Amino acid sequence: MTDLATLKTLNEQRWANAKLTPGRTPEFKAPAQKAVTNKARYQSIESRTGVSWIFIAVSHYRESSQNFNKSLAQGDPWNKVSTHVPTGRGPFASFEDAAIDALVNCAPHAARSTDWSIGGMLTLLERYNGMSYANANRPSPYIWSGTDQYKIGKVLVDHGPIEEVVDKQLGCAGLIMTMMKLDPAITFGASPAPGAPAQTFDATWLQNSLNALGATPPLLVDGTFGAATRTALRAFQKSKDGLTANGIANVDTVATIKDALAAAPGA
To answer: Which residues does UniProt call coiled coil (predicted)?
Structure first.
């Protein structure tokens, strides 16, 4: 089993050193432009899951070649039951609904992530695809194809071995590099402090509190911090000055919720 902290450090090092493979730079331009052009659509999923739109955009390229008729989970048509891993998903009413299911309900449950640093994102993308390469101590083509960090090796079938062939599809890292040149708003912050609690709350308390403060639609109080709760929390954060609308119940957000409850009529 691969230690995720070690893998993240390795991905940070690879990112710092990575260069696009000579001769392949032009190949990145069209998918990067398409990803940036569809930013608003990806952001609509981000707003409902808390998953960075950049993660959504590049996984959409890898999983389904940016085809909005296919699922973000594995590239199967989202209007049918999926037959590839993850199997048995769907049918869904839209690309967005299928994407939310993939990010919230399917491993590695990307919607639970709070680390959107470049190392955190690349490591989550690698987990999203599968850990075969990391377990073999090899760079993942899902991330590094089209850069000098990758040479050869590709899993050709779900859960199959790594075959000694070159992945011709471009990797997520090079795509992100190219997107950053097209959209200066794309930046990456530092990782969360090691050991710092990402969420300091009781989910049942949070759901009851957001309902008391007028969450629309009202939340099902089930003690699970899922997509609906994250969306309601983000809406609350947007309504308050000084809070970052990231859907994370950090100390400042919890304190603001408590203040709002205390100030509510009848409190």
So the answer is: none
Any long-range contacts for 223-226 (C-beta under 8 Å, 24+ apart)? 225/112, 225/199, 225/249, 226/104, 226/111
Contact 186, 180 (CB under 8 A): yes
Residue-wise pLDDT tens digits, 249-259: 777 888 899 99
User: What does the pLDDT read at residue 194?
Assistant: 52
Q: For the chain, what is the largest distance between any 2 Cα atoms, rounded to a whole number of angstroms?
A: 68
pLDDT at 29: 98
Per-residue pLDDT for 171 more than 60?
A: yes
The answer on 149 and 51 residing in a single domain is yes
Q: Cα(250)–Cα(197) distance, rounded to whole angstroms?
A: 8
pTM: 0.74
pLDDT tens digit sequence for 156-168: 988 889 999 999 9
How many C-alpha atoms does 144 have within 13 Å on its Cβ side? 26
CB 155 within 8 A of CB 135: no
Domain of residue 231, residue span: 203-263
**Total number of domains in the chain:** 2
- Judge if 146 and 232 occupy the same domain: no
Question: Would you give the distance in Å from CA 51 to the centre of its chain?
Answer: 4
